[in-house]
Design brief:
7 strands; alpha/beta; binds S-adenosylmethionine
């Protein structure tokens, strides 16, 4: 998909502009959120540092996880195809690693095989909450394989969980939120009431912070607008990558509920 196609889809209200949301999120970025982002990477990858490793952040969004990986010592490549997301990631690079040659930010799409072939291979490929928003999730899941280093490369992805009826409901909400401006306040009010407020109350009672350094408000807008939207089950994803020579090394599911299942796969050396 070219820049022009992307802009056309946004203009026709067929696609949510994630980057515009991320721009506002950056206003609330602080050291605590950056630390939580670093911890989320360390916990799932079971590492203390990424020193000497290469890290591709596919669909970098705000750039927070590229920054976290760079802080952990990796040589980072950030890619996004929404120009505002690229701007956000560049902005974080400017703020924290201005003249650093171990972090590059590139505009490109995971669906563009020609572009992907210029990137090389990486020790870690990270694509959290991205591939289900491309409009061609299974193609994107396949394309990303060529970016993972053949010898023990690692793939960390997060994908929306499939729910029998709820997924169809959320697809309708996201499509109408993106398409009709007048529906936005309606969906925001309805979904602040449920699920945002109950989950916030639970979080306060359990003294738990928002995961991965996110904010409640911008997470809600990202969730409501996040369209295109596709879903999968953990079994489907496990089988898909098993066939491609990967083994699952860590899994965090949402237990059949709403949200993203997280997977860490290792590439088997053949
Ligand atoms: C929900 S955000 C996730 C951002 C970030 N990975 C995170 O965890 O916060 C999804 C991002 O994927 C990007 N994206 C969607 N389709 C893409 C594509 N085909 N190629 C690259 N990035 C894409 C969007 O522009 C957006 O910035």
């Amino acid at each position: 998909m070219s820049r022009a196609d992307f802009q056309m889809e946004v203009k026709e209200k067929k696609r949510f502009e994630f980057g515009e949301n991320w721009k506002k999120f950056l206003f609330y970025l602080d050291d605590q959120r950056v630390k939580e982002a670093e911890n989320s990477i360390k916990e799932m990858l079971e590492v203390e540092s990424l020193e000497g490793k290469t890290f591709l952040d596919m669909g970098s969004g705000s750039g927070l996880f590229s920054l976290a990986a760079r802080n952990l010592g990796a040589r980072v490549t950030s890619v996004d195809f929404d120009e505002s997301s690229v701007w956000c990631t560049d902005e974080l690079k400017r703020r924290f690693f201005a003249s650093d040659d171990r972090w590059q930010v590139i505009h490109g799409s995971v669906l563009d095989k020609g572009f992907l072939s210029t990137l090389g291979r990486f020790d870690f490929v990270y694509s959290w909450g991205v591939l289900h928003h491309t409009g061609q999730m299974w193609q994107a899941l396949a394309n990303i394989v060529s970016l993972v280093r053949e010898e023990d490369g690692c793939l960390f992805i997060a994908l929306y969980n499939r729910q029998t009826i709820a997924s169809a409901y959320w697809k309708m909400v996201k499509r109408t939120y993106t398409r009709f401006l007048f529906m936005r306040p309606v969906w925001i009010i309805v979904h602040v009431l449920y699920p945002t407020v109950p989950s916030l109350v639970l979080r306060v009672l359990k003294k738990k912070k928002m995961p991965r350094g996110m904010t409640v408000w911008y997470d809600l807008l990202d969730w409501l607008g996040g369209y295109p939207f596709e879903v999968s089950t953990p079994t489907e994803i496990f089988n898909f990558y098993k066939e491609k020579g990967f083994s699952l090394s860590k899994l965090k599911t949402v237990g059949g509920k709403l949200g993203c299942n997280e997977f860490v796969f290792r590439r088997n050396f053949m």
